[in-house]
Design brief:
The chain is α/β, with parallel strands linked by helices. It has eight helices and 14 strands. The termini are close together.
Length: 256
């Protein structure tokens, strides 16, 4: 089954340009250097599944003409991955209740941050119409299977996802051996590559490249990219099968 993996946002938690910064990347005229907070959409037939919905989701959805959402899968509970939940409201009014899937820790964060959405005592009529579910190891949505891939994010274990011949691993510093086995056969890989220098909770370019070599995808895309990496200059240094993701990039994938 043919599908499209759309990069809604390819930047870090602070986005690029970063507020108050006048570096070469933040002042670049290359639109690929304008990076909103990290998220992707998987689109097939008339279905759309999001992985994360951050603070830039509204603008991302307008840019990509997203008129409905079938489900949202959350990688973890950091602000740059969850704060777009309230922007699901008009979509939930139009198409009905939207299921959200998150691990227990992330669910607790969502319920605390969006208390007015999840509180049974709040009957405000225009709150988001969503249903929060615990994320299983394997989830099937409209005949498409999404498999949770545990990855290390600093000291925290969070969720990546595999779907068909593709996988999405944002906010990743290390991939456990068991998860590497789960990625066997992946042809399209999108993974964290924050910058060139090491970082305690994100893979740098060297580390991400080492994982690409081990997994062996046909093509890989760096995401969660900081303002320390210019798109054109960095991509010119990479082998042909490793590319820089950018906001609005659409990648063809196969779900079955």
């Amino acid at each position: 089954m043919q599908a499209t993996l759309t990069i809604l946002g390819s930047g870090t938690s602070m986005g690029v340009p970063t507020l108050g910064c006048d570096c070469n990347v933040c002042t670049s005229g290359d639109q690929r250097d304008r990076r909103s907070r990290p998220s992707v959409a998987i689109r097939w037939d008339d279905h759309v599944v999001l992985i994360d919905a951050g603070p830039d989701f509204r603008e991302q959805a307008l840019r990509e003409a997203l008129t409905h959402i079938d489900a949202v899968l959350y990688t973890h509970g950091h602000a740059d991955h969850i704060l777009g939940l309230d922007d699901l409201r008009p979509l939930s009014f139009k198409k009905g209740r939207i299921p959200l899937y998150a691990e227990r820790e992330t669910s607790e964060i969502l319920k605390r941050v969006f208390n007015y959405t999840f509180s049974a005592e709040n009957n405000y009529p225009t709150k988001a119409r969503v249903d929060l579910h615990e994320l299983p190891e394997t989830l099937t949505l409209h005949d498409t299977t999404f498999t949770r891939i545990p990855v290390q994010h600093g000291e925290q274990m969070i969720s990546g996802f595999r779907f068909g011949n593709a996988a999405y691993l944002t906010d990743m510093s290390d991939i456990p051996e068991a998860s590497l086995e789960m990625l066997s056969g992946v042809e399209v890989l999108v993974l964290d590559a924050l910058r060139k220098t090491p970082h305690p909770s994100h893979a740098n370019v060297e580390r991400a490249t080492q994982y690409i070599d081990r997994i062996g995808p046909r093509v890989a895309y760096f995401t969660h990219i900081s303002h320390e990496l210019g798109h054109a200059a960095t991509e010119a240094e990479l082998p042909s099968h490793i590319r820089m993701a950018y906001d609005g990039l659409r990648i063809p994938i196969e779900l079955k």
